[in-house]
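Key idea: predict the complex, not the pieces.
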Amino acid sequence: MPEDRSELLQGTLELLVLKTLSLEPMHGWGIAQRIQQMSRDIFQVNQGSLYPALQRMKMKGWITSEWRTTESNRRARYYALTSAGRKQLAAERAEWERTSSAVNWILDWSGALP
Amino acid sequence: VSALSQIRERVRALIFRSCEERELEEELRHHIEMETQANLHRGMDHEEARRQAFLAFGGVERFKEDVRDARGVVLLEDLVRDVRLALRRLARNPGFSIPVAATLAMGIGATTAVVTLVHAALIRPLPYADADRLVVIRHTASRAELPMSGASAGTLHLYRANSRAFEDAALYREATVPLTDRDQPEQVRVASVTPAMLNVLRPTVFVGQWLAPGAFGASRFDGILISHALWVRRYGADPGIIGQTIELERRRITVNGVLPPGFGFPHAGTDAWEAITWPDQDISHARLRELSYEAIARLAPGVLSADAERELNRLVPSFADAFADVAPQQVAEMGLRVSVVPLKDAIVGDTRSPLLLLLATALFLLIITWANASTLTLVRTMRLRRAVAVERALGAGPLRVARRLITESMTLATLGGAVGLGLAAVAISARFGFAEDAIPRLREIRIDATTVMVASGLAVVSGVIMGTIACLSASLSDAARGLSAAGRATTGRREQTLGRMLVAGQIALALALMIGSALMAESFWRLSRVQLGFRPHGAVVFSLPIPPLAVARNDASELPFLYHRMAYTNAEVLARLRLLPGIQAAEAASISGFPLTPAASSYNSRVAVADGARASAEDWPYAQRSFATPGYFAAMGIPVLSGRTFRDEDTGAREHGVVLSASLARALFRDESPIGQHVRWASRPNGPQFVVVGVVGDVPSETVRDGPTRVLYLPNNYPPRADTITGVVHNHLPNDEMFVVRTELPISALLPAIQGIVRDIDPKLLATRVSTLEQLVSSDMARTRLTMLLLMIASAVALALGVIGIYGVLSYTVNQRTNEIGIRIALGQSPGAVLRMVGWHGARIALIGVAGGLLAAFVLTRYLRSLLYEVSASDPMAFTTMAALLLAVAFVASYIPARRAARIDPARALRAE
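Result:
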């Protein structure tokens, strides 16, 4: 995979993970499932790339992890949002909205200055 | 076997993979299983479900790697793997790794040990509170031929009263005396100190409990304070000893405290402090007296020793007013000056230059080992070029290759450093084989943080140097050239130049060391050929310190009694010794004037020709006073040059006979015959006169190096005659005689007999300083010999490394040029010409090295000057012979590869392509 594209996806992926975890703590596969459900046809993402992203976010202190037992009685690592992560989500979301509205504005621009 | 190796792999994985690694594994497995499960629900068969799960995930290993990267542990794990790889590669190549590790170990070990030693002796603060404020006060009299001498109660009293430079000052003098309170008499080192010493050095003192410095008041200090070591050794650390008396020189003294562990002054091994005080009237009468005590002072805060020195010197002109025993013009005439020296400098004294020499030698060796390791690395990297080229062709980036080379160098350097540290530890714990007092503060030397830091620092530097050389050499040729170079025998010019420079540098340093050791060897040779003036072989000497009873200190009327007691003791010891079988002679003389034995300078007096006239008393020569038995000269093997030795009648009140040493006779009478002439003490024109009955050969003074000493021998006949005691001659107490026993018996056989006789006569006496005359001579030369040996070993190692360097570089060149040489021979060049070509190649390296070495030696040997004896620091003999020797050895080292080149079979060489 070319470097620049994964670079591009990284920020988005992190935003999606943050959003997913803001709902409830979840293990890696669960996050992947959720993101896939939400974006199946939009992104072609390897599920594996989720894990380096999780590790990076953990290092940044946005999420924490702990080993818990799943409903099916197996051990799995659950990730949860920290308060720093919550702030990050808000910030990234604002940033995203700003960027996307700017992009939308450009795309919708018909050539006339407002 | 496979099961076993599997287990081994598992164990290794467990050790090297962290806990996190296992968790990551489990997490990813969980993910794959969940996904597989989901796929099964979607109706796939098991195989397909699993395949799709992996596909959706992407490369498991790659993402694992990414997670590790994100985690940041990748460096450490890579390091472990790199080091293991490096170790394996090094183990496969012992011809390179063992010599490099060994030379590095030697260089690092020697430097570490020496730095630790120098640090302990020169740099580390003294083990006393605020030690940088401690100074010693000494006096010099430039015009009175007096050596450095100490202070007296009078001077110190004057200074303390008139100077603000010091917080406090104390006097001390150390002596070895018998401790006689138990069955086993023991020699102990006791320092007599004034009570102010507690204020100056501020030790914690144990009196039932450890008291903080100052809490044990200076004014209360009387009796004796014993060292912690003596307390433990002799009194079993019994606190009950405080307040008890012990018997020192037969005087019973109260133990008033124990000094803290490890504390000792003036030496680390000093066993006790005995308080000395002077009666008040002695100080109020204020006499200068002999400057025979050492003085130590604590500077007031903020005062520099130079300031204190200036202040004290301002007081010197007032000596004549202050002291009754100094004539007004005397002070000026003597050129008396006060010197205030930081205690540390005073302790280091004249061992500074041998220590710095040692340090320089170690650094030389270190640089040589670095150059050697670099050369070997260079040669190896050149050989490695093909492997490196393959690696790079397979996609390893230049950083990857550099990392591998650096890891290898660092691993090797670490190994070398570890072994070097071990070697240093051995040398340090063996105290380098030095006697305890040979180097100041040697007892304090420890393997400490400095040692470890120096060793690891040097290892890192070594690794960086070798790594840089390796990378430099590897990068000098790019991958493509490397591959083709391996096929076609071309040589990298620049690496070769670098290699030649390294070898030439090694040779230069080796030559400098060789010249240094040649100079030391010549000094040693000259020293050992000095006419000693006595016969060292077959003689045992000892001294018998007889404790002067306390009563003698201020009561002149006790003198005759004491004299008799001591004289009879001495006479009895001599008489009993002479009865022993195997003894040819047993005689005695004063310690002053006895060759190679230090004595207090107070025995030095000026001697004048009785009716001679010289401008002033200061024009007469100094001489040591020695009281010798008539047979002393024969027993020592000192020749009687003219006249005769003593006879009984020489101890008369009128015609008291004396014997002069040759140098004294020359100084007094020039070419006249001294026999029958009269001499007297220069300071007492109307004092007793002595008639010269003989002249004997010169003997060296305290050390052979200082040349002969002038001695005035006075007769010491036992039993003494009354008139010699009552002051005609002196008030000399025969309590410090050196006994000399001429015998073929070994010292070990004689020692019990001597101690037996002494104990028989007086159970509380102990013969000390027992040695043979030969031992005295050899220990006098110990420092010269040690320096010489050290430099010789270092230069031998340096020479060997230099030779290996030349040989290695030439062999490599010949290997590389086999092909070219083959063509040359095939085209008709004679083997002789090939031999000359390769030989000249080696000779050029050697010549450059020798030129550099001569230059370096010329600059560096001047620092040896203080250690040389009658050899110039730029002695042409040493320079030329060593240069020639090195060239000869270098020639042999180049000859072997050159001959191999000349014998190359062209057919085979060309086919080898």
